[in-house]
Amino acid sequence: MPEAALELANVRLTYKNFVALDGMSLRLEPGEVVCLLGPSGCGKTTSLRMAAGLEQPESGEVRIDGKVVTDQKTFLPPEKRNVAFMFQDYALFPHLTVLKNVAFGLKALPKAERLPAARAALKRVSMDGYEEHYPHMLSGGQQQRVALARALVTKPKLLLLDEPFSGLDISLRAEMRDDTLHLIKESQAAAVLVTHDPEEAMFMGDRIVLMDKGQVVQEGTPQELYFNPKNPFAASFFGEINMVPGEAKDGEIITPLGAIRSTELPDNTEVDVLIRPEAIHLCPCDTLFEGMPMAEVETSRLLGKSSLMHLTLLDEEHPIHIHARVQGNFLPEIGEKFGLGVNNELTFVFERSATT
Ligand SMILES: Nc1ncnc2c1ncn2[C@@H]1O[C@H](COP(=O)(O)OP(=O)(O)OP(=O)(O)O)[C@@H](O)[C@H]1O
Ligand SMILES: [Mg+2]
């Protein structure tokens, strides 16, 4: 097996009394793109700074390409780690031209080769023609491209990107994500990309590492996290989710939306059932069957690719509010009634004690 491009092993770091990383571990294979995903303050940036050599942990180890760069006895400075990083604010040097910004990291090359290499890197990010501009003359997206060229020009084996697209508007962000992913893959660098946007993580990541409170909650492919979340936190991190109460009975989970998937839990075990909005299907009146759960439309909103239905379950003692996400051109009237079907694949059952 090849050496991991990056490994954080059981890293612990505290700022004064605050535990920012609490046994954080991560392994990145060569050429792999891993997205570090999690809520604000969970320790994503700290993990990257640790890998880059900008923070020293209390305990644990950091290895790059199989070599220990941080442990109790070792601390290799950032410039010796063959790592390129790109932080949220791009941090271009304001007094240097675009070309010189990109050439800056190429001190190791003979002088005559530096500017041609920088020019080639700018061409790769479609910024040729801007060589003599200064950073303040560029838009956010253009600065982002230059920063990316600067990160890639040294041909690093490891690339660390901290929320690189957060300052861009939606369409530019989508374009930059796509370009960046192709450039990273083309360069064959392994990359850790920090984001708090699950869709971005699924778009960019070969694998996703989901963090909370300084620890890894779950890691796996986007499919694994989306279809098999380990706990309610992981289930709800990928977008808004419905939660209804349920109870095990005769090998099934009984909920206000009917009997959902089989279970081995003993009878009367109380559970929370988390249902993704796109798991709920609205069935028109002519396809209903006896005992089917029914709901009334409260409002329906077009969101572009999809529409969101706000529904109230009928025949319930206390009103239960449900969101369903359906195809964008389906916008029923307020008060219309539908039967509800549920896709088990996007429905997750957790024992009540696991939900906080
Ligand atoms: N220099 C510091 N001194 C004290 N506390 C810090 C310092 N840097 C970070 N922290 C704290 O450590 C925790 C983790 O911070 P970190 O920047 O890694 O979070 P993050 O996951 O990147 O969040 P965000 O999504 O908001 O960028 C936060 O609660 C933060 O307040
Ligand atoms: Mg951060």
Key structural traits:
356 residues; alpha+beta; Rossmann fold; OB fold (Dihydrolipoamide Acetyltransferase, E2P); 2 domains; six-stranded mixed sheet; five-stranded antiparallel sheet; 8 helices; binds adenosine-5'-triphosphate; binds magnesium ion
Note down, in words, how this protein is organized.
The structure is a single chain. It contains eight helices and 20 strands. It is of the alpha+beta class and 356 residues long. The chain folds into two domains: 6-237, P-loop containing nucleotide triphosphate hydrolases (Rossmann fold); 242-354, OB fold (Dihydrolipoamide Acetyltransferase, E2P), CATH 2.40.50.140. The strands form four sheets. A six-stranded mixed β-sheet has the order 6-7-8-3-9-10, with helices on both faces. A five-stranded antiparallel β-sheet has the order 13-12-11-14-20. Strands 15-19-16-17-18 form a five-stranded antiparallel β-sheet, with no helix packed on it. The longest helix is centred in the middle third of the chain and has 18 residues, at 170-187. The protein is elongated, with a radius of gyration of 25 Å. The relative contact order is 0.12. The mean pLDDT is 91. Adenosine-5'-triphosphate binds next to strand 2 and helix 1.
